[in-house]
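Give me the fold.
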Amino acid sequence: MRSVLIISLLSCFFAAYNAKVFSKCELARKLKAQGMDGFHGYSLANWVCMAQHESNFNTRAFNGQNANGSSDYGLFQLNNKWWCKDNKYPSKNACNMMCSEFLDDDIDDDIACAKRVVKDPNGMSAWVAWVNHCKSKDLSRYLADC
């Protein structure tokens, strides 16, 4: 029992150690390098806006309080009902990923899953924060000074 507790505590420390909070411009550069500017018709500013309002650029962001019992993970708040698997909630797992993989500072897998999400008919409307804060708005401030 004691070893389980120690391993759990070390896992929490490791997850915290690997978390990153991006600056707006740092994230914009990373997303651009990964081909997100114009991906499926969405500008880089749309992606930066969405990430700010979903996670405040925090790779370790977690929301376990959705009304339907599902949870959201990481920089893009990818949902365990549709996009990833966490063994706590039935999932379509369309990105074929464990949700915990979205909680570290390596966002390459997050970006790959976001690309999968936006290919669905809802596009970026899959993200409520994008609909509420970014859709049809002037997004120039999200790339200002970058």
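Helices lie at 2-17, 24-33, 44-55, 108-119, 128-133.
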